[in-house]
Write a structure and sequence with these properties.
The chain has 200 residues and is mainly β. Helices cover 9% and strands 44% of the residues. The protein contains two helices and 19 strands. The strands form five sheets. Strands 1, 2, 5, 6, 7, 11, 12, 13, 16 and 19 form a ten-stranded mixed β-sheet that branches. The protein is globular. The N and C termini lie close together (7 Å).
Length: 200
């Protein structure tokens, strides 16, 4: 991913964000009041406002440094969405005897409908891969920049590959201008800190 810094947005500020997954849907309403809806995106794109996360003077200073280092919208970064950051025994695929690479994913199941999300930014040290339920202690590597799991030897045909992990979301600031104000000596504010997910 070009224009990306493998650093995480300050967790202390991220804890107070609002937002989440967003879709783009075109809705056409007829004169009789009937609707036709067209889902323009098959995958959600997260949007957050981190303005409510600023609470302390230290957060204020950290945000200024972080924003300057990312040069506004120029460079992406990792962001921990505290409402959704963990995969518990996630299904990755079934071995066929030749395939060695599997993408980390998160599956959301509701009413028999599954939404599959690629996990591109797993947290270093948090990934545990299982083969038929047995944890792999060797013979597997994790790319923490892409979320790709690679086996040294292809899993046998029919073998179930699963994994647990924590993950970040690749995002960027959705503004090039800071809106910070110093309300008092100890407290600063930026009413809106827009963050938007970066698609790979």
């Amino acid at each position: 991913m070009t224009g990306f810094h493998e650093v995480r947005f300050p967790d202390a500020i991220a804890r107070g964000v609002t937002g989440g997954p967003a879709y783009d849907t075109s809705v056409i309403t007829t004169a009789a009041g009937f609707e036709r809806r067209n889902a323009n995106w098959s995958q959600a794109r997260g949007r957050w406002d981190a303005g409510s996360g600023l609470r302390r003077r230290a957060d204020f200073s950290a945000l200024i440094a972080f924003f300057r280092a990312r040069q506004g919208r120029a460079y992406g970064f990792r962001f921990k969405d505290w409402t959704d950051f963990r995969v518990e025994t996630g299904f990755l695929g079934v071995g066929d005897g030749t395939r060695t690479a599997f993408q980390l994913i998160r599956i959301y199941d509701s009413g028999g409908i599954e939404a599959v999300r690629d996990i591109r930014k797993p947290v270093d040290g948090s990934v545990q891969v299982f083969l038929d339920g047995v944890p792999m202690s060797a013979g597997v590597s994790i790319d923490h920049r892409t979320g790709l799991v690679t086996f040294a030897v292809a899993p046998a045909e029919g073998a179930i590959v699963t994994a647990t992990c924590e993950f970040d979301v690749p995002v960027r600031f959705d503004t090039d201008a800071m809106g910070l104000s110093l309300d008092s000596f100890e407290q600063g504010s930026w009413p809106q800190i827009p963050l938007v997910e970066i698609r790979p």
